[in-house]
Amino acid sequence: MLASRISLMACPPPNMNQVISTGHPGFDLYPIVVDPSTFPRWEDASPYLVILAGATKAIDLASPHGREAVLTAIERARASHADTAALSTIILGVADAAARGELEALMASPKFHSTFVDGLLQQGEEKGLATGLAKGAVASKIEDLVKVIRARDLELTHAQLELVTSCTDLSQLATWFDRALDAKTTDEIFGGR
What we know:
It is elongated and about 80 Å long. By secondary structure, it is mainly alpha-helical. It is built from eight helices and two strands, in the order E-E-H-H-H-H-H-H-H-H. The protein folds into two domains: 6-111, no CATH class; 134-190. It has helices spanning 47-55, 64-76, 81-94, 97-108, 113-151, 158-166, 170-180, 186-190; strands at residues 6-7, 33-34. The longest helix is centred in the C-terminal third of the chain and has 39 residues, at 113-151.
């Protein structure tokens, strides 16, 4: 959970108006502290400023207006599905239990459904497709490797067959495939494994 004050420096001095000398001439640090009482005007601001205002609690997530403002900002940011999910997670994480429930209900409402629910579903489908394609490429390479070895009348031991069929590293499978094209024994392919 984010603290109620976010400082742009690691250890703020006791007096927030105090200049921090770095020892380098002309390179002193002037702390900028942002909290709900000092946050700049966020109405009609850029989406990311509104999201930051929500994350620092400068926007009251317990109010319907505040919840809608933050979710609208996330939607207006037009971020990737993964970034939208990350921004949503941050906002849900700083909200109290009641506000979190209201935010989740609002995310599932027709107004925000396409951004939050459909977007996450699409992200899951894309990830599933990528995983499926990667598994298919591995399975295909395994099949090709075994075919080449058998076509060359070489015998795989049980351990070597297990090694091949359990491998998920495409580059390793490609190395073995290249070796199998002219190896005289399976030990030459697998380096004595």
